[in-house]
Amino acid sequence: MNLDQIARLSPQVISQELAGETVILDLDSECYFGLDAVGTRIWHLIREGADLRTIQNTLLDEYDVDAAQLHADLQDLIEDAQQRGLITLEDLS
Predict the structure, then answer these.
(1) Whose CB has fewer CB within 10 Å in the chain, the N or C terminal residue?
(2) What is the mean pLDDT of residues 67-93?
(3) How far apart are CA 18 and CA 63, in angstroms?
(4) For every residue of the chain, which 3-state class applies, written as one string?
(5) Segments forming the whole domain that contains residue 67
(6) CA distance 5 to 81
(7) Rounded to whole angstroms, how far apart are CA atoms 59 and 90?
(8) Predicted TM-score of the model (pTM)
(9) What is the rounded CA–CA span in Å between residue 7 and residue 90?
(10) Which residues are CB-contacts of 93 (< 8 A; sequence separation ≥ 6)?
(11) Domain count of the chain?
(12) 17 belongs to a structural domain
């Protein structure tokens, strides 16, 4: 994962927050996905247009978590969302 990238939501994705978690519907595949509270925070930051470095730094400020573990978890979520077509990644430059 390159932290100097920005994630863009697919136009074929809709999401709704319910009780602190997010439900995502991919209109192309008609599949639902769920995010826990931390995943929901990441999703909000993506929707706000934050780049991956900003997302990582924001989460480090907001949560008591090891930096290496956070990086790995963020990478897993971003790669999974990208593989499922929920987001695309663009270089900032």
Answers:
(1) C
(2) 95
(3) 21
(4) CCCCEEEEECCCEEEEEECCEEEEEECCCCEEEEECHHHHHHHHHHHCCCEHHHHHHHHHHHCCCCHHHHHHHHHHHHHHHHHCCCEEEEECC
(5) 5-85
(6) 14
(7) 21
(8) 0.91
(9) 6
(10) 4
(11) 1
(12) yes
